Amino acid sequence: MQDDRPGSNRPMRLGLPLLCVLALVPLGCKGGNAPALAKGEPTEEPPPEVPSPPADGPKLIVLQSGTVVYDRPSTKGRPLGELGAGAAVARSSEPFARKECPGGWYVVRPRGFVCAGEAATTDPSLAVALPPGPDLSRALPYRYGRARTEGVPLYTRLPMPAEQTTEEPDLKRYLNKRGSLDAEMLGAAANDVPVDPRGVPQGPPVLMPGVDGADAAGKRTVGSFFAFPASAVAPLAPLASRVADLKSGVLRKGSGVALAGSFVASVASNAGEGRRFGVTPSGQVVPIDRLKPALGTTWHGLDVEKVGLPVAFVHKSGVTAWKLRKGEAEPDEDEELERRMAVPLSGKFRTVNGVRFEQSREGYWLRAQDLVVIVRRTKFPDFAKGDQKWLDVSLANQTLTAYEGQKPVYATLISSGRDVLKEAAESASTARGTFRIRKKWVTTALDSREVHGDFEVADAPWVMEFEPGYALAGTYWGDGLGEAQTFHAVALSPVDARRLFHWSGPELPEGWHGVTDAMGEGTMVVVRP
Questions:
Q1: Which of 154, 306, 461, 491 has the most C-beta neighbours closer than 10 Å?
Q2: Which 8-state DSSP code applies to residue 108?
Q3: In this structure, are residues 504 and 497 in contact, taking their beta carbons and an 8 Å threshold?
């Protein structure tokens, strides 16, 4: 990851300006009124104190992803956060100032200033032309797809048949196989995991009718997954009028993209019922038959607020429980445990014939070599007092434990930098030390090195940056939890990432897409061997 000054090329940043090239995320992309989140230049005067606009007041309609909220009416101010395309945030009835911004700087709720112009407007009629925003109540805030082939086009508008043929020479073959692709059955997704109001998982995944395309019988297909309610997509003409080029870019094979909605356009295809296109959060149009569903893993960590520590996660497949009798150990072939299963431990252990066994709270025994154990701490950092929230990340164990003071509340597996304990600045390792969360994004792009450069990672969910270039992030593209596989990031399951995002500081204001620690103190993050 790179420098995060305004206008610099950096892979980790909040969102993408409207119709920016997703496939070229690491090269950067700028919008006139939407510079990247970064520290503002020093200013002599404090920000003006102005009342927060009422929630039921007039709205500022956001046209570009990555629209910055500043602490003062100036691009030299300190960024407080960012807004995503389609957001409608309460604003002041009149501009506070017009310097540097002919359209006027408006105060937005709960605080800060946004320039009305290319990136945002006071015209409410444009709201119907914008994609729906993210669903913050779900493990994955959007439905996701990944490119089936190289060069999947990202159109800036609905392409006509001749234009599709030009841009997609193999179009006929893809349209002919669309039916078989649509009928493919899908399993459970991250969004099928039931959670309580805190985001804590409450049981195994359940395919509920209407959730991400599941029908009344709880069945989901590729076709139904990519079919959104008709109300989910609005007219696209105002978006198309903003750019001249037919394409904003292409997706490499395997690259992911979030979808805010989809529609069938019969005029755009010679096929009977027409061709389905998806709409990205930034307004691009992508052919659905070029995407495969990205459901996100249903695996997640464990709420330890009541059960406490120690807790173990089964490290491998084919692990069985053991019975210990008279100095002998006997495997119980009827008690096989799933890989990564969470097992609360009693804290008791025994060594039999040189092999250490840990006792579960249910009484059965497990070989220590088959487990990753999060032990009960006896020493704590000086700041771990009262209800102070902090995260304890162990690179050697590939675990994360969330604490409130000295009370553990959540435990899970992670995937950190693949070089594990090497020097982070010179390798694919996660930085070690004590940090605070500096910035949070509902979704943002990550450096493709996090996935060995094999594809682009757009719209990664629940990203929490604790050091420039280092962040906790949810995943929709893979499931390597428990193994060190990333570049610098600490990868989490979608369920875990959402739980920690809403639990940690700084708190995301309603309607915003990203927030910095200028809006509140960030949660402490301890990364250790």
A1: 491
A2: B
A3: no
Show the DSSP H helices in 426-509 as ranges: 494-503
Coil, strand or helix: which one is 238?
helix
Helix (H) or strand (E) holding 176: helix 171-176
CA distance to 12, 169, 369, 501, per residue, from 444 (Å) = 7, 31, 38, 14
Name the 3-class secondary structure at 185.
strand
Bond preceding residue 506 cis, omega within 30 of 0: yes
Would you state the structure tokens that stand for residue 475, as one six-digit string?
A: 């995943």
Reported residue count of the chain is 529
Cα separation, 458 vs 492, whole angstroms: 16
- SS3 per residue for 119-169: CEECCHHHHHHCCCCCCCCCCCCCEEEEECCCCEEEECCCCCHHHHHHHCC
Pick the CATH number of 310-374 from 2.40.70, 2.60.120, 1.10.10, 2.30.30: 2.30.30
Which residue has 């009798």 as its token pair? 325
What is the rounded CA–CA span in Å between residue 205 and residue 207? 7
DSSP conformational letter for 98: -
Residues 166-192: what's their mean pLDDT?
Answer: 88
The CA distance from 368 to 448, in Å, is 36
DSSP string, 351-382: EETTEEEEEETTS-EEEGGGEEEEPPPS---T
| Distances 287 to 147, 219, 318, 417, 443 between C-alpha atoms, Å | 10, 23, 41, 34, 22
Distance between CA atoms of 409 and 411, rounded to whole angstroms? 7
Segment 289-342, tens digit of pLDDT? 999 999 999 999 999 998 999 999 999 999 999 999 988 999 998 889 999 999
Which of 174-188, 412-426, 446-460 ranks highest by mean pLDDT? 412-426
Residues 38 and 5: beta-carbon distance below 8 Å: yes
Task: Examine the pLDDT at 265 and tell me if it is beyond 90.
Answer: no
What local confidence, expressed as pLDDT, does residue 43 receive? 52
Residue 57 to residue 91: CA distance in whole angstroms: 7
| Cβ neighbours of 391 (radius 10 Å) | 23
Provide the pairing of β-strand 220-221 with 185-186.
Answer: antiparallel
Residues 6+ apart with CB under 8 A from 354: none
CB burial of 177-203 (b: ≥16 within 10 Å; e: otherwise) equals ebeebbeeebebbbbbbebeeebbbee
Considering the segment(s) 389-528 as one domain, its CATH architecture is Beta Barrel (2.40)
What confidence tens digit (pLDDT) does each residue in 243-261 have? 678 999 999 999 999 999 9
Check if the beta carbon of residue 298 is closer than 8 Å to that of residue 269: no
Structure tokens at 219: 């069945």
Nearest to 492 by CA among 525, 468, 519: 525
Strands (E), 57-119: 59-62, 67-70, 79-83, 88-90, 105-107, 113-115
Q: Using CA atoms, how far apart are residues 48 and 93, in angstroms rounded to an integer?
A: 17
Pairwise CA distance, residues 315 & 372, whole Å: 6
